[in-house]
Amino acid sequence: MKVHYYIVLLSFFLLAIPNTANAQFFKKMMENAENKIEREAEKRSERRVNKGIDNTFDAVEDEIDGKSKKESNTKTSKKEKASKTAAKEDEEEITTTSPNVVWSQFDFIPGDTVIFEDGPSTDEENGEFPSRWDLKEGNAEIAEVDGVNVIVFPHGGVIIPYLKNPEESYLPDVFTIEFDAYFSKDNEHRFWISFYDEKNQSRIDNAQQVTFYPDGVSFENSRGEYPKKLSASGWRHFSVAFTKGKLKVYLDDTRLINLPHVKLKPTGITFENDGYGADKTFQYMKNFRIAKGGVKYYDRVLSEGKIIVNGIKFDVNKATLKPESMGPINKIYKLMDKNPELNFSVEGHTDSDGNDENNMKLSKGRGKTVMNKLIAMGIASSRLKSTGFGESKPLDNNSTPEGKANNRRVEFVKF
Predict the structure, then answer these.
(1) For the chain, which end, N or C, has fewer CB atoms within 10 Å of the first or last residue's CB respectively?
(2) pTM of whole model > 0.85?
(3) What is the DSSP code string of 28-79?
């Protein structure tokens, strides 16, 4: 627009000049001006075109840059996504590979057949030597503690089960030992069991002792301590299981020693304690039992249709379970859990002590207690029922402590 304006204005100016020379001059100026204007116009036009081209390239470059950025963002997003996915997978892997720990620290199952049992009996006279035992050295007497007969060791003692032909081996390849020992906070007493009769049998090779402490046990170089704090004074329940060279030792409800290979051939039992200290604190022991091991529960069901358990124990004249009963009950639970086709009638039995009516009531109550315990653990109630037979179905005679112990039992009869 400006170029055309200047050309018109200059043409008007030249037409207004009359002189021929001047006219020629101005004509030449006109031509030069037009040439200059045309060149300027070309430059401007070229700059405009170049600017347009630049803008076009800028737009293209912007588009290219935008796409690259988008791709870059996409790649970054993919990397982040992949990283998040990998992290999630790692997290899932950690979650799914965390160990599901199943560890039973109380798997004690008492032997099936009692071969030695001493409570002591209520028939034992206070102050007398316990009639079910023989003495190697020291002293042992019957005493009453909290209304129950126990064996007390006034000056320490070493005693041996009193059996016929004690010089012969009476321990089978599979057996269990159980007893209760009292510890006082005023003295660090200990008890020991050797696996041969020190009075009547020759010492066997590797005749190491199991040592029983207020809070643990030891054998050879192995020692186990109870994981929880125990009362300073009180009764402890100890259990020993020997299975063809494998030795396990328990304190209350926890296994503390588990040795797979013991070079030992047990032949008998010697029970020993270290007596009392200067404070005149005595040591007490009760409920000593040796039992022969037996067939696995499932095999018994297949062959006999029932499982006989005398290791389920109750308070005297009550249907209240003792803690050490949980070993066999746990085994029954696992058996039923793995074999849903098994249904059991839980049946209580007593020895002949007491009158028939009370024994019948007691046996039914005990059967019901065990049944309810299994139901509480997760077994469907439809798979269980309970009853009791008192003293009416003895397995052994009731004239010896061992016979009575075998008759006091719980049977799981398949139905």
Answers:
(1) N
(2) no
(3) HHHHHHHHHHHHHHHHHHHHHHHHHHHHHHHHHHHHHHHHHHHHHHHHHHHH
Tokens of 213: 């402490």
Selection from 122, 184, 133 nearest residue 162 by Cα: 133
Of 282, 252, 317, which is closest to residue 145 (Cα–Cα)? 282
Vertex 203 angle, CA 202 and 209, to 5°: 140
What pLDDT score was predicted for residue 288? Answer: 97
pLDDT at 390 over 50: yes
Total residues belonging to the chain: 415
pLDDT at 304: 86
> What is the average per-residue pLDDT within 368-397?
96
Q: What CATH number belongs to 295-415? A: 3.30.1330.60
- Average pLDDT for 38-47: 59
Where are the domains positioned within the chain?
2-75, 106-294, 295-415
Number of H helices, E strands in the chain: 6, 19
Q: Which residues in 354-372 are b (16+ Cβ under 10 Å) and which e?
A: eeeeebbebbbbbbbbbbe
What is the token pair recorded at 116?
């030695």
Tokens, residue 346 = 């839980």
Fold (topology level) of 106-294: Jelly Rolls (2.60.120)
The answer to whether the peptide bond before residue 214 is cis (omega within 30 degrees of 0) is no
Nearest residue to 412 (alpha-carbon basis) of 380, 374, 376, 382: 374
Q: Phi/psi of residue 163, each to 5°?
A: -130, 160
